[in-house]
Please model this.
Amino acid sequence: MERDVFDYLEKDYRYLNNYIRDLNKMLFISPHSAIIKGRTFVEKLTQEVANKEGYGLLNVMTQAERLRKLEFEGVLEDEIDNLFQTVRKIW
Model:
């Protein structure tokens, strides 16, 4: 069993884990860059969820449209959708 979610990401989704590592490095040096990395991470994670759930065509949509569709289809629970929406709106 993996120690944490980041071990899982490193194993199967290294590119996502790289966003988290970059975010962690930039957090206190360049907060703006860390926010951008966080937003990009959530967008890429949402694209992965859409692909895994058979909604690959959602990858050409905006993040707002993709989240709306995934929530409507019941793929994302309300709490997760709200968190993703919050990250999307940060800037």
Remarks:
- The two ends are 36 Å apart (CA to CA).
- Helices lie at 5-12, 14-26, 31-52, 63-72, 78-89.
- The chain has one domain: 5-89.
- The chain has a mean pLDDT of 90.
